[in-house]
Amino acid sequence: MKFCSHCGSDAVTFSIPEGDDRPRHLCGGCGAIHYINPRVIVGTLPYLGDRVLLCKRAIEPRLGLWTLPAGFMENGETSEQGALRESWEEARANVRVDDLYTVYDIPHINQVYLIYRGELTDTNYGAGPESLEVDLFTEEAIPWDEIAFPIMRETLEHYFRDRRTASYPLHRGIIHRKF
Amino acid sequence: MKFCSHCGSDAVTFSIPEGDDRPRHLCGGCGAIHYINPRVIVGTLPYLGDRVLLCKRAIEPRLGLWTLPAGFMENGETSEQGALRESWEEARANVRVDDLYTVYDIPHINQVYLIYRGELTDTNYGAGPESLEVDLFTEEAIPWDEIAFPIMRETLEHYFRDRRTASYPLHRGIIHRKF
User: Fold this and answer.
1) Do A170 and B22 touch (CB under 8 A)?
2) pTM of this prediction?
3) How distant is the Cα of A11 from the closest Cα of chain B, in angstroms?
4) Helical (H) or strand (E) element with A104
5) CATH number of A39-174
6) Does B172 score more than 90 pLDDT?
């Protein structure tokens, strides 16, 4: 943040406001404190029989790699609504949600992932503008070495493990920075 | 947003960027798009025996009403770390987390709540700067008509119901605007 979005001043510093314990974007002009907080990524794990739907990314980062449909949660929607919206936008997928399935923190990029598990209600899926290709994969057919994000890989691993017992508890996890 | 935080221009409109489907704060000067997304509130339900810890709020909104310790998740932390941090800041409570307990959406104020259930590890709790008072309450003693927020009331109701069977599954919910 170079300029204060309240008053337009360029006297914005990243420093600790009085009474606070961590640095914020602080305006020396009008005194406004600009908080920046983690963002929520919402998505689904859409399944049909023994197959799971994946999208091949048409955008960076990880262009050309495969992922579950997901994206930034928007204001004014619930996390489940956001997950369904992203599933439609990226994969033209219609999903009937069973339950919340994975909750992952990625603290080094300030993100929280909420992934819902749900069955496809039809097979009219297809690539939205942010996908090159969308397809259903069995566990064996999944391109395990071409999964875009560790959170998605772990969610898929949980799912295929849980399928063996047909029990799908919530899984929580943390993705740490790779050094 | 009155001024662009990238270039300082006052030509910021709330309009739909090309290729998008909803209005954003859009700078007519440098073209920057400023996204605003939901925020995550993290907290705990701290229990000891048959009692739950509540904080009497020393700040608005809902000054003087009771709540579970919770607050905005910060960048760089996990949701569980944030929940423990808030429990310390508001109630000087040391909590050993059992599991994630409630996930609530409040779409009209763009918030997602993640409340963790956990046992107090000691009784050295006390009011932090944002609390007037902190105390442990049995189900009967809880000031049910003086709970600050519906999400907290529902979380407490879930807890005392689940205690009867000693089974604490994740509960999801949505708080809608009251008309």
Assistant:
1) no
2) 0.96
3) 11
4) strand A95-106
5) 3.90.79.10
6) yes
